[in-house]
Amino acid sequence: MKTWKKLGIGLALCAAVLAGCGQDAGQTTQGSGEGAAKSEKVTLTLWHNWAGQDAKAVAMRGLLDQFSADHPNIKLEIEGLPTDGLKTRLRTAAAANEMPDLFVMWPDAMTKEFVNGDLIQPINEFLDSKPEWRDNFIPNAFDGFTVDGNIYTVPMNLAPTSLVYYNEALFEQYGVKVPETWEELKTAVKTFNENGIIPIALGNKANWVAQSTIFSSLADRVTGSEWFLKAAEQNGATFEDPQFIQALEKMQELSEMNAFQEGFNSIDETQMMQLYAQGKAAMFISGGWALSNLVSTAPEEVLNTTSITVLPAIEGGLGDPKSTSGVVGTGLGINKKLEGAELEAAQELLYWMAGPEGQKATLDSSTLVSYNIELDESKAHPLFVKLYNLMQNTAITPVYDAKLGSATVEVVNNGLQELLMGGNAQEIAKRIQVAQARAVGR
């Protein structure tokens, strides 16, 4: 397992306002694709998940606006969707072979499915034409987007998916220790419940949340990553093995001890964070992406007492307790059908969003990147500095929805919703096993 310190990542956050970064992007990037800049007028369709009002979404939309202003010959027809809606829309479009020209896509399983469907095209040649850009990503950054030696995009961010955001003031007020073990977590939950504070706010209406932000790390604490990767490949392990049943039971235990507020399956991630921002919850569990939203929306008195850690260790578990599930981040896929001036324009947009200035704008929005930029802590938001420092000694483990087939992921997500409402762990495990065996053709 590699920590970010071992990878030698240089993460940074610049203090320039978004408009300034947008101007820099135009100055730096114009001329990088002279052919596209001078070609005939083209139209590109783009689907993304920067639809919210968090700092990351605002930054990305700002880059798109600046691109359009600086490239009058390239018309962008843009559609922004929430993450779960985008994933569903993309898979529907893939089934009909009606993909947009460019689209935000995820590494590993989704990338492989799109490659196997002959829906996207590699960017090796374009990437090699810009070696200074190509060689400045962190080690292994392209792995999740590489199939049979071909690279299909580059990451636009870095996404640890399971971080515990907690209110230090509430922990101090009620004499609660920040949990480092499962027993300490149970004690914390009990104490907060006794004092009318939601222990952990959860918004699992979009059913991927519990899987990606809690279960992927919790299960790894129990089973270890080696077991999970074997089960994903259906090679030497199955999802009906005892250790996976135990992981499901640990997840269910959270619900049984009332760690979450009532109605957690009926509110979304934004509403979950509002409960925390209002001081009604001591903790919430989410990915690194939540930080930019929190910075944009939470009152200062909450931000000033917020800190970040990882899920506690589970006694007897085989996983690394100093780890979080995650991926290198999303990238922009390019439709296999594009060629000529349209392809050239698409490549230029990819570089605009994921090149040096795009990476800088992402960092400006309190979002980690998979790109080497020097860190200046004096210009970073204090909460982002906490996240950066945490990640220096935190290993990354697989997230379930990146490694399993899309059909299996839906079974997992639905199964976890059922589990948290009292479902049978063994029956849910059996359904997951059947789905993944079918996904890999076994």
Described by the principal axes of the CA atoms, the overall outline is globular
CATH topology of the largest domain: D-Maltodextrin-Binding Protein, domain 2
CATH superfamily of the largest domain: Periplasmic binding protein-like II
Number of domains: 2
Overall description:
There is one protein chain. With about 450 residues, the protein is α/β, with parallel strands linked by helices. It has two domains: about 5-155 and about 330-370, Periplasmic binding protein-like II (D-Maltodextrin-Binding Protein, domain 2); about 160-325 and about 395-440, Periplasmic binding protein-like II (D-Maltodextrin-Binding Protein, domain 2). The protein has helices at about 5, 20-30, 35-40, 55-70, 85-95, 110-115, 125-130, 130-135, 170-175, 180-195, 210-225, 225-235, 240-255, 270-275, 290-295, 300-305, 340-355, 355-365, 380-390, 400-405, 405-420, 425-440, and strands at about 40-50, 75-80, 100-105, 145, 150, 160, 165, 200, 280-285, 305-310, 325, 330-335, 395. A four-stranded mixed beta sheet has the order 2-1-3-12, with helices on both faces. Strand 1, helix 4 (about 55-70) and strand 2 form a beta-alpha-beta unit. Helix 11 packs across helix 21 (about 405-420). The longest helix has 16 residues, at about 55-70. The radius of gyration is 22 Å and the shape is globular. The model is unreliable at about 1-35 (pLDDT under 50).
